[in-house]
Amino acid sequence: MNKSLAYKLGTIALLTLLLMIPLLMIGGLISDRQNLRDGVLHDIAQSASFDQQISGPLLVVPYRKYQRRWIVKDGESVEETSTLSGHLYFLPETFDADLGVDTELRARGIYQARLFHAKGRISGRFKLPHHWGIDKDFDDYRFDKPFLAVGISDIRGIENGLELSFDDQRLPFEAGTGLDWLRSGVRVALPQLDGEQAREFAYGFDLALQGTGQLHLLPVGRTSSVDMRANWPHPSFVGSYLPSRRDIDANGFTAHWQTSFFATNLEDAVRQCATGGQCADFSERTFGVSFIDPVDQYLKSERAIKYALLFIALTFAGFFLFEVLKNLSVHPVQYILVGVALAFFYLLLLSLSEHIGFGPAYGLSASACVLLLGFYLSHVLHSVGRGVGFAAGLAALYGMLYGLLSAEDYALLMGSLLCFGLLGVFMVLTRRLDWARVGRAA
Hints:
Number of strands: 17
Strand content: 25-35%
Largest sheet: 9 strands, mixed
Oligomer: single chain
Shape: elongated
C-alpha cells in the first residue's frame, strides 16, 4: 500500500479512536444520571411504600406440649415434666384473589416514580383436620387461641381498615403477624377452636394496598386462583409461575393464575421456614407483576451509544469515498469536527429525554445533528447537493438506529443486515476504483 494512503487511513483510524474519549464520558454520564434517578425513586418509595408481597393467610395455632419422663433421684423414681412450645400451621384449602390495580405517577423534580394501588378481595376456605392432625398424645397438648396471619411486606401501604369475615363474624385485624419468621404483616385473633372435630370455615377480607415497583402474591392455597386487572399496558410478569391466561392492550392488561399444592409444595416450605429458618423456598415461590417501565430513556440512551462507533466509522468512510471518488481533500480537523457533532447527538439525546421523553428527544437531537452537518458539509464538499445528500444518508442512518432501538428482539438481526448492506454499497461504489492510483494521488 502506498505510504500516503496508509497515512490517510491511519489518521482516520486514530481520529476515530480519539472520539471514543467523549463517547465514554457521555456513557459514564448516562450511568450517573441513572443512579441519581434510582436514588430519587428509592426516596419516593421510602416515603410511600416499596414493592409489595402478600403472603397468606396462614392459620396459626400456638401450643404447649407437656412431656413426662421418669428419672431416678435419690434412689427413687421421680416423674419429671417439661414443656415444649411451638405453633401448628395450616394453609387454606382454597385461596382466591380478585384484584384491580390502578397506577399513578409521583414526581420529584424531573424524575417520576410509578405507584400502584391494588384493591380487591382475598377469600377462600380452610379445612382443619381432627385433633389438629395430631395422631397421638393429643391429651398432652394445650392450645392457645388461634389466629390468622397475613404477611404484607410493607404495611405502610395498607390503605383501608382490614376486617376478616370468619364464617358469619367480622373480626378486626391488628398490626404484626405474631411470627418471628413472618415479621411484616397483620393478624387477627380467631374464636377458640378446640380442634376436637374436623371442620371447615370460610374466610375473606377486602384489601386496598399501595406500593411501588412490583406486586407479588404467594399462592398459599391447596388450589389458588388469582385474577388481576390493571391500567398498565407494559406488564412484566415475574416470579415462579406465569399466568395461565393474559390479555394485554393499550388500555392495560388482565391476567389469571392457577396453581396447586403439587406445583408449589408450600407445606414443606412452611415447615422448613418455621422450624429450620430456611425461608428462601417459602418467600420465593411467588408470582406477580412489575409496574416498572421495561425500557426507560436511560436504557435506550445506553443502547444507542453502543452504535456510536459504527456511526462515526460510516461517516468517515463516506468522507473517504468522496475524497477518492470526487478527488476532494478533507482535512483531519474537518473529520474531527463532524465526529464531535455526532458525539454531541448522544449528549442532546440524554438531556432532552429527561424532560420530554425518549421519542421526541431522539427526533429533535437527530434533526439538529442532521441540519448542522448538512450545512457544514455543503461547504466542506463544495456542493450543496453533496451536503444535502450526505445529510439525507445520515438521516436514514438515524432512522435505522431508532428502528434498532425499538425492535429489541430483532436488534442483532437488523444490525447485522444493516452492516452487511452498507459493506455491499461500499464495495459496489469502489469496484472499479484503482487503489494504486488513489495511493499515488494521496
